Amino acid sequence: MGVAGTGKSTVGALLAQRLSLPFLEADDLHPAANRAKMAQGRPLDDEDRRPWLMALADWVSKATESGRGGVVACSALKQAYRDLFLRAGSGVWFLYLALDPTVAQQRVARRTGHFMPARLEQSQYAVLEPLRSDEPGLTVNADATPQAIVDEAATALPAPR
Length: 161
Description:
The protein has helices at 8-19, 32-39, 46-65, 79-88, 101-110, 121-127, 146-156, and strands spanning 23-25, 71-73, 94-98, 137-141. With 161 residues, the chain is mainly alpha-helical. It has one domain: P-loop containing nucleotide triphosphate hydrolases (Rossmann fold). The strands form two sheets. It has a two-stranded parallel sheet. A two-stranded parallel sheet has the order 3-4. Helix 1 crosses helix 7 (146-156) and helix 3 (46-65) packs parallel to helix 4. It starts with 7 loop residues before the first helix and ends in a 5-residue tail after the last helix.
């Protein structure tokens, strides 16, 4: 979890590969209207996010019911969103990729082929509720290499139930 540009997709894919789990890029579940809105430089609100969050919660629920689990690269900016995922499946654990806003904006400005422009970065930080100490998970510095983050996460992950 984290704002755009923190490396969620890269780290998530690497972690899923390391753990031999299915991987979901949450952006793939955004409705076309959400993608278009962001591409126009307009931030999403909770109403825009609702169908996307419900689709993600459904994926989490199915991954849990399968007994296998999975890894999702998702912003999960607000605690209420994370609470939805916690209710959707047992054993949900968050890896918060924390990053300086200036660095995140620079990373987003450099990427190509993505619908979210760098000018929306501040809107994500405006609503970001960092992972709290009472939420299951780990906060890491996203300045580290993706492999170092994966190593730290794999070590911190609780044993499967």
